[in-house]
Amino acid sequence: MVTMKTNATEPPTRTHIKGSRSHSLHDNQHHHNRDHHIHPETTILVVLVPIVIVILLLAISLVVAFLRRAKSPKPNGTAANGNKSCMFNAHSIISFNGTTDMKRCIYGGRPPSATSKGIQVFTYKELQSATDNFNQTNLVTKGGFGYVYRGLLRDGTPSVIKMLHREGKQGERAFRSEVDLLSRLHCPYLVDLLGYCADNQHKLLVFEYMPNGTLYDRLHPCDGRPQLLSWGIRMRIALDCARALEFLHEHTTPSVIHRDFKSTNILLNENFRGKVSDFGLAKIGSYKLNGMISTRVLGTTGYLAPEYASTGKLTTKSDVYSYGVVLLELLTGRVPIDTNRPPGEHVLVSWALPRLTNRAAVVEMVDPNLHGQFSRKDLIQVAAIAAMCVQSAADYRPLMTDVVQSLIPIVHSISFGCSTSSFRFSKRISPRS
Fold first, then answer.
1. Theoretical Cys-Cys bridge with 260: which of 135, 246, 281, 290, CB 3.0 to 4.6 Å?
2. Which residues cross the membrane (predicted)?
């Protein structure tokens, strides 16, 4: 019995310990092998997930960039619907404050022959020679801005040279604005700036020559003798001007607000095609709706939109109002403000607006110099356009693109003689061919 107790209390043999250790090692190896099989999968996931996330982010970025590009204006401000040759180089600003030869030209010194954008820089002596020392026989007109002369440049190019005499910051600002904008705006419906001179105190602008003068002079000649503009020519001028404003408002980024759109700033070439000029008061709009900005009220009485005149808040719709006034001039042959007329007829817009939607009254308000040679159907349509443009509430005025699209079929029908059958007084006056 004692022997059995002794055997029972004997420590385990080396064989037992070895076996136990072997079993423990086997279990550890088993767990290790199991962990070893899990670890590669985790590693793959850790590597793949960031890669997939990066790829998704890149794809989203590309889609967003593509959508923004699709929504943004065409490069260089390329316009549609007839304005394909119009461009606005938004970043090609001519600097007047640099240290180049341009600065020496502005503040004195010998200028370079041309700028990088093809706008020539003239000396005062060159323009003196071009105008025969600013001879009075070459004087075209004069106004608050200065004097306008006909000139012949050294290469034989006929031109119009505007000598600015406005002093102070306003004159300097107007000069810089016109040079800067017209050197970047390229459109067949805007007068071309050929060059400029800023030789010491002399500020002159050189434009392409427009042989038929201003629309104002054609509609309201000083000598009282009417210079007939036919209905077809008037509608073509209206469309040309609408295209010019469409380009400025809707095909430049940000938009350009002319701020002084009027018949004296519409010039006519040898074919009586209209071009818009005088950007001295023009403003670059904001990125807000209709490019709204707040500014000092400047412009010409009779053409100013009521909200701009009263608050100084300027938008592209302010130009639309001014365009409506010019359209009324084309229809009626009247000036915007005429105190020589009977009471109630002094202001063109207030007199015309109630008549524009009355089919009988609108016929009676047409310029008598047309002698009834117009399409009544076209007249009613144009009167409706004018009525919308001169609405007192800016929100009710149309976009210039809408005006252009409304005028295109009218001009097209006149060009192809499709509306001659509706001319009034056809028994007295033979219709136009």
1. 281
2. 44-67
Q: Are strands 139-143 and 146-152 parallel, antiparallel or unpaired?
A: antiparallel
Instruction: Look up the pTM and report it.
Output: 0.72
Q: Which two tokens stand for residue 39?
A: 């670890």
Instruction: Please indicate, yes or no, if residue 226 is contained in any of the structural domains.
Output: yes
Total residue length of the chain: 433
Q: Which of 184, 208, 232 represents a domain boundary (last residue)?
A: 208
User: Strands 185-186, 256-257: parallel, antiparallel or unpaired by DSSP?
Assistant: unpaired
- CA distances (Å), origin 242, targets 9, 151, 249, 293: 116, 29, 10, 22
Question: Which residue of the set 260, 319, 367, 378 is catalytic?
Answer: 260
Cis peptide before 188 (omega within 30 of 0): no
Instruction: CATH number of the domain at 370, please.
Output: 1.10.510.10
Burial class (CB in 10 A: 0-12, 13-18, 19+), 246: buried
Token code pair at residue 237: 């001028």
Quick check: is 429 in a domain? no
90 vs 51, 181, 366, 391, CA distance in Å? 40, 9, 41, 32
pLDDT tens, residue by residue, 351-377: 999 999 999 999 999 999 999 999 999
Model confidence over 154-172: pLDDT tens digits? Answer: 999 999 999 987 565 667 7
Q: In this structure, are 155 and 242 located in the same domain?
A: no
For residues 336 and 262, membership in a common domain is answered with: yes
Chain segment 215-247, per-residue pLDDT in tens: 999 998 877 666 689 999 999 999 999 999 999
Residue 32 lies in a domain: no
Neighbours of 17 (CB within 10 A): 11
DSSP structure class, residue 167:
-
